[in-house]
Amino acid sequence: MAGEGADRPRLVVLGCGFGGYSLLYDLHRERWDATLITPRNYFLFTPLLPSAVTGTVEVRSILEPARRRLRGVRVLEGLAETVDFEQRRVTCAGAVSGERFSVPFDTLVIAVGAAVADYGVPGVAEHTLKLASVEDARAIRRGILEQFARAEIPGLDPEQVRQRLTFVVCGGGPTGVEAAAEIHDLIHEEIAQSYPELASSARVVLVEALGRLLTSFDQALAEYTLQHFKRGGIEVRTSAKVTAVEKDGVRLLGGELLACGLVLWAGGNAAVPLLASLGLPLTPRGRLAVTPFLGVADHPGVYALGDCAAAGEPPLPATAQVAQQQGEYLARALDRGRAGRTVQPFKFKAAGMLAYIGGGQALADLPKVKWSGRGAWLFWRSVYLTKLVSPANKAKVLFDWLKARLFGRDLSRF
């Protein structure tokens, strides 16, 4: 078969998110000498990460080991540090040992995702938790349980208890909304049974700098979410800009200190440091500018996709479905190009957006229908179940949902 043997082009993919993983999974891998460089050795299904915070699903249920699914791909656990485009070589640091190594390439795909933006707000790095990784989800879960343990100490006055049991989520986008909903569910459906005397003092506060939640969703669905949160007891502060995060609270514009025990920062995306070092054209938001074919201008054989790339005008949003479709497209494009066949520009097909809002309700903002409530929640679960990448993931998540329903979530602190 053409492409087999020692003449296979050296393809290097940086990143194992939706973009990089989808590319390698759909690629005819036997035609390429493919290498994946990633600081983690697994693919993470991030849409269910807020559920992993509270134990509705377990973190291992939404992980898929890269080596198991990407047969024929060399997986190197490391972090790309520099790229020499003239010598066509990537220099990396080992994710475990820190040792430096380099990998040559003929074709390079940059799919390094994005970092969590702090917008220059003082104290974000020191005093907040974020939700972008397995480690983050475990830290938030442990942090919630630690605050209840701290609030149970004898001799505290009511104000101290209330401060420790106030959980602030900064950011009213899908991640912030889902995290606030999951934390509220955990407190009032599970923790309240173990700490009945503290439940009335616990509260979740969602802070958003703009005038509404979920700006990427339909206005009516955003308003439904706001009313649903108010009925359920989640306090929502819109048009509330955070000016600083302190050890025991969040400082808002105007000077108000929102005292709390834990802050979850869900402030949106920022460019990862690698991008600025590449010497490639960037957009004002720091993303790599790409052509309609996802290539980097004036750099043949170099492509970028996912959250780190700005495709289209205006640029497509940094979402999982965009990255996944780009990965699937680029796999076909590379295979077609290798076979000398015509390649068409990338076209995104919007499938809609989903979000869990707590209490067994969700939002479904689809191209032809806007939907909320219990039925949307069942739809949300069914879609995510089908989107999980392996039969093992599907079985584990389904079992986790059933287990949480029958026996409750695990409240062990470890």
Q: Summary?
A:
By secondary structure, this protein is α/β, with parallel strands linked by helices. It has helices at 18-26, 49-53, 66-69, 124-127, 134-151, 158-164, 174-194, 219-232, 273-277, 320-338, 374-387, 391-407; strands at residues 10-14, 33-38, 42-44, 63-65, 74-84, 89-94, 100-104, 107-110, 115-116, 129-130, 166-170, 203-207, 235-237, 242-246, 249-252, 257-259, 262-265, 269-270, 288-289, 302-304, 309-310, 353-358, 361-365, 370-373. A 7-stranded mixed sheet has the order 7-6-5-2-1-8-20, with no helix packed on it. The protein has a 5-stranded parallel sheet with strand order 10-17-11-12-13.
What's the layout of helices and strands?
Layout: E1 10-14, H1 18-26, E2 33-38, E3 42-44, H2 49-53, E4 63-65, H3 66-69, E5 74-84, E6 89-94, E7 100-104, E8 107-110, E9 115-116, H4 124-127, E10 129-130, H5 134-151, H6 158-164, E11 166-170, H7 174-194, E12 203-207, H8 219-232, E13 235-237, E14 242-246, E15 249-252, E16 257-259, E17 262-265, E18 269-270, H9 273-277, E19 288-289, E20 302-304, E21 309-310, H10 320-338, E22 353-358, E23 361-365, E24 370-373, H11 374-387, H12 391-407
Parallel strand pairs: 1-2, 1-8, 2-5, 8-20, 10-17, 11-12, 11-17, 12-13, 19-21
Antiparallel strand pairs: 3-4, 5-6, 6-7, 9-18, 14-15, 15-16, 22-23, 23-24
Helix pairs in contact: 1-10, 5-6
